[in-house]
């Protein structure tokens, strides 16, 4: 009887080796569409930090560029990825580059 329980336990434990559990991984700055909509050209760096927080990437060689990056992977597959880049002239936003689907839809809608 004990040998049967041990064998069943070993078999069940070995199944987990065949299909390892993969963790959901969320990295970076998650920026909602509402937060993104609040960012406008002309805002100061302090105003941007109040809305979006500290940028994910602050490049010392490009201090006038802030990168907000977000990646979500589930079971080893990339599910979602966004990259928002803000360029500053002195202390205010001079240009915004946003690759999120909502922002491109908004730009297309505004052009029509």
General description of the model:
It is a single chain. The protein is an alpha+beta fold and 112 residues long. It has a single domain, classed as Beta-lactamase Inhibitory Protein, Chain:B, domain 1, CATH 3.30.1450. It contains four helices and five strands, in the order H-E-H-H-E-E-E-E-H. It has helices spanning 2-18, 33-38, 45-52, 101-111, and strands at 25-28, 57-58, 65-74, 77-89, 92-98. Strands 1, 2, 3, 4 and 5 form a five-stranded antiparallel β-sheet that branches. Mean pLDDT is 78; it is low at 103-112.
Return the structural class: alpha+beta
Q: Can you tell me the CATH topology?
A: Beta-lactamase Inhibitory Protein, Chain:B, domain 1
Number of strands: 5
Quickly count the helices.
Answer: 4
Low-confidence stretches: 103-112
CATH architectural arrangement = 2-Layer Sandwich
Instruction: Round the Cα radius of gyration to an integer and report it.
Output: 23 Å
Helix content percent band: 25-40%
CATH class: Alpha Beta
* CA-CA gap between termini: 76 Å
How much is the average pLDDT? 78
Whole-number tally of structural domains = 1
Q: Roughly what fraction of the amino acids lie in strands? A: 25-35%
């Amino acid at each position: 009887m004990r040998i049967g329980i041990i064998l069943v336990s070993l078999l069940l434990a070995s199944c987990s080796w065949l299909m390892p559990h993969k963790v959901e991984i969320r990295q970076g700055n998650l920026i909602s569409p509402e937060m993104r909509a609040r960012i406008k050209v002309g805002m100061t760096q302090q105003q941007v930090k109040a809305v979006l927080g500290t940028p994910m990437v602050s490049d010392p060689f490009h201090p006038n560029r802030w990168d907000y990056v977000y990646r979500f992977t589930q079971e080893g597959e990339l599910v979602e990825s966004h990259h928002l880049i803000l360029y500053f002239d002195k202390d205010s936003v001079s240009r915004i580059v946003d690759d999120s689907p909502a922002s491109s839809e908004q730009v297309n809608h505004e052009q029509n």
